[in-house]
Each structure stands twice: as C-alpha cells, then as structure tokens.
Design goal:
Blueprint (H helix, E strand, L loop, with lengths): L3 E5 L11 E8 L2 H9 L8 E3 L6 E2 L4 E8 L4 E6 L3 E7 L4 H10 L17 H5 L2 E2 L2 E2 L4 E8 L5 E5 L20 E11 L9 H10 L6 H15 L7 E2 L8 E3 H10 L6 E2 L4 E3 L2 H7 L6 E2 L2 E3 L7 E3 L5 H19 L8 E2 L1
Parallel strand pairs: 2-5, 3-5, 4-20
Antiparallel strand pairs: 1-2, 6-7, 7-12, 8-9, 10-11, 10-12, 13-19, 14-16, 15-16, 17-18, 18-19
Helix pairs in contact: 4-5
C-alpha cells in the first residue's frame, strides 16, 4: 500500500475544487483498510474518508490521512423466485450498480438512476429520488471502525435512516468506514411512477406498459434536463434539503404565497420544495464570479471553474438568510462542509 503526500483532491469531488490531502491512500479491500487503520505509524494521524466526493464541499486543505475506499464487486448472495440479495463493494459507482440491476431485471433502485457518487456513500446519505429512498432496499451495511479496525455489520434498523440521514451522519459520524452493503431487490418489481414528471416522460417515450428500464430511462432524461453534469460544471446536485414544516406554518405561508407547493408527509408535517423557495427569492441563475446558482435548477450551486469552497459556502449562507427572511424557513444543507 502506498501512502502519498500532498495529493490534489480535485478529481475526487464533483465540485471540482482544488484542495489537497496532506496524506492519501487508495484501499481496494477490507484487509488493506484494516491494515492501514491498525498501522502504528498512522495510528495517531487524523483520518478522513473520501469516496466519490459527490456530496461534499471542500472549503480547505485536509490535514489528515485521506482514505479512499475503492472496494469493488457485485455478488449474488441469496436468491428466490421473487427476490435477489446482492453484496456490493463501497467503491462501486452508484449509477453503474443501478444499471447492473436494470440489466439483470432486479427492481428497486431504478428510480435512483444517475445519482452521482459511490455505493458506500449511498447509505450514509440515505439517497433518494422520485419516491424511492435507499433504505427501502438495503438489507445491511458493512463498516470498519476507524479507531479499532474492527468490522461490524449494521442491520437496516441499526442504520437509523431518516430523510437524507443515517447513524453514520449522526451518532457515529467520523467513526466508521463503510466498506459495502447488501441490497434486497425484486425479480417481480412493482414500479413507482407516481411523480408527474415520470408519468409525463413515460408517455412521451410511448411506454404504455413500462419496465424498470423504462423507469430508469425516464428518470435519466428528467435528471439530464434539470441538473448539470458535474463533468461539465462542478456541482454536488441538490445543495439543500427540502424543508419539512408544521402544517400550521404551511397554512400561514399559503396565506401570503398561495402558489407555494407542499407535499404532506403525515398529519402534522408538510415538505416544501427548497428549489421553489430559492427561485422565488430571486437566486435562480445568479452568478458571482466563478460560482453561482444553476440557471435551470435553483437547488444546485455550481462552480464554473476556479471557484473555491469558501466562496460557495458564503453564497449558500446568503441564500439561507434570504429564504429565512422572506419565508421564515431555515434551509439546511444536504452537502457536507469540510
């Protein structure tokens, strides 16, 4: 295993920000990961885990040993006539894994097509899109304790999944390296096409009896029409979470803004689209030097090239203050600030 010094992380964050790792190592197996964590030479050095960098904002260099888990593999470990269980390495590209499932007729993740990042980052964030969250298909998560090097298997319940949350972002933050996960998928999938955009796109495609491949293709078309490709414009997708507010607060908001959209979560809570709030506050298409808010999707902050993480962080704080001032709603970042 080779530990490198002063390594640029530009290629490992989708914002394309130029920050350096004081030390960097790429690990391709659980054994390699355990070895570096238990190595006396590195025992006292702070550790930072970096996967595909699709949900982080690097605001500074990282004075730590940056560990990149590049553990691959997709293996069938259980199967019946109706379901299949796959064990997947943390280093697998998430979208490649989704396409593997679609190609094999395994349903359950097709609504999560084209989400950037790796399989290892997916449970940490409980990624979700178009009516599906990863918690609905995860069986377990394998992780290694950074301090002890011990491996642990977390059940779905033990992951404490919430809206873009998990135990790995809360109580166990910075304590574990996710090395893989198992997924329980369906060979006889029930399609989720409830979102209006998905239904409309399927109709335009002429998919009268849609398959999981049709769902995947429709969602890829939608995402490409709304979201910039990180390979072309640096971004991390949705920068803010959609706020969830009490029903009474939403009713008051509608008195002033009758057109505000809202989606009931339960009898007491309504989800309000953060993109709508940001656009209504006048930020859509805003540009400040080499950074800005995307012209087609107000929920996406972008680096046009040469911007810094500190600049993007400052812009996000301006947007938060603006939305809070106009609507009385505090936006919380979905992106993790480093």
């Amino acid at each position: 295993m080779l530990v490198q010094s002063n390594v640029s992380l530009r290629h490992l964050n989708t914002f394309g920000l130029d920050a350096d790792a004081r030390y960097f190592i790429n690990v391709t197996s659980v054994d390699e990961l355990t070895a570096i964590l238990r190595d006396p030479e590195w025992k006292g050095t702070p550790k930072f885990i970096l996967g595909g960098g699709s949900n982080i904002l690097l605001t500074q260099d990282i004075e730590a040993l940056v560990i990149h888990p590049d553990i691959r593999g997709i293996t069938v470990i259980g199967e019946t006539e109706e379901t299949v269980v796959l064990a997947v390495g943390a280093g697998e590209v998430w979208h490649d894994f989704v396409m593997h499932c679609v190609d094999n007729g395994y349903g359950g993740v097709e609504n999560l097509s084209l989400i950037p990042g790796t399989v290892g980052a997916a449970p940490m964030q409980n990624i979700g899109a178009y009516g599906v969250e990863i918690k609905s298909v995860i069986g377990s998560v394998e992780a290694v304790n950074i301090e002890s090097g011990e491996k642990r298997i977390f059940s779905n319940a033990e992951c404490e999944f919430g809206y873009r949350e998990s135990i790995f972002k809360k109580a166990l933050k910075h304590q574990y390296v996710i090395t893989g996960a198992t997924f329980r998928l369906s060979k006889k999938p029930v399609l989720n096409a409830a979102y209006g955009d998905v239904q409309k796109t399927l109709q335009e495609m002429g998919a009268e009896n849609p398959t999981i491949r049709d769902i995947s293709e429709a969602i890829m078309q939608i995402r490409r029409s709304k979201l910039p490709d990180p390979a072309e414009i640096g971004n991390a997708g949705s920068f803010f979470k959609n706020p969830e507010i009490p029903v009474a607060q939403f009713a008051q908001l509608r008195e002033t803004f009758p057109e505000v959209p809202g989606y009931p979560i339960d009898a007491e809570t309504v989800k309000v689209p953060a993109g709508w709030l940001i656009e209504r506050a006048g930020w859509k298409g805003y540009r400040e030097g080499e950074i800005g808010v995307h012209a087609r999707q107000a929920l996406v902050l972008v680096n046009y090239g040469g911007g810094t993480g500190a600049q993007i962080k400052a812009l996000s704080e301006k947007i938060q203050a603006s939305v809070a001032g106009q609507f009385g709603i505090r936006l919380n970042a979905e992106v993790n600030f480093i």
